[in-house]
Amino acid sequence: MSESNEPSRTSESTHPAPTTALARRIATELSRDLLSEAHEVAAHALERHGADAIGPILFYGSCQRAESAEGILDVYLLSKSNRAFHDAAIAAGLNWLVPPTIYYYEIREGQGSSERVVRAKSAVISEDQFAASCRDETTSPSIWARFCQPAVLLRAPDEATRERVIAMLVDAVKTAAWWAAHLGPASGTAEDFWVALFTGTYASELRPERADRARLIYETYPDRYDAMLPEAWDALGIAYRREGDRLVPDVSDEAREQARARWARRVKAGKVLSVVRVLKGTMTFDGGVDYLLWKIERHSGKKIETTPWQRKHPFLAGPAVLAKMLRAGMLR
Asked: What are the tens digits of pLDDT across the range 232-252?
């Protein structure tokens, strides 16, 4: 692999400090250097797809939170454009209509009992679409809900790109904080607001998560979330007061009611979009049906069997597999 294809390892000390508390916090998180396997995944993605069409690469998700390569590592590849990344116009069009497109990797080293396997999946989306999703300019909360959580920047081709990523993730946190103020209680701890927010975002997708999943997200980094919520409200201009360990945002009952009505419409639209994404996912990478079922089984504890024909013809089998999943209660 050529040196130009190596993902950069960022270091906080080599970059100018952002000017706001929220941006400084995001910049520090992005600059963490953890899990060499994540850098292997980024290098593999660049080698497989070509570096010319890929901009920043972000590492996020459960393995990042646990700082462990056990399981499947999650990365987002932000492409310069859908057409630049995808060879076929149809694939580019599908990713423009229903982003992101998912790829599954298995990086193997050694043989036999000494073989080491790094498993990962990458979500590919254009940088412009990612930025719009962080600003809440799309119906689905999937991008900003994921990236208001900590992430690591595995690759930034230049300083301007790094600054754009910081700005995008600041937008994601601000979007999440706005909805937390409107979906959360009139008065509560930072935990109360974040749990209300993540409960709402999980409800908008067909995600077979544990009932306490939203709280576990908060409990992984409680100090971060406690500090970040008022920082984001300050950046948004949402006034609030403190009553001991409780926060009281200046949000009227009318504004909260209107926001919750909007969110209810998003939940309905989000579930439809999730079905579309499941069906698209069966087409976009080898082993799509098996991967999706494994993912859902891991989260729900429920398993269904598929036939060889269904695995060989995922697009045709998609509706039948989806119906099995719904009957089994694997999706909500």
From this structure: 999 999 999 999 999 999 999
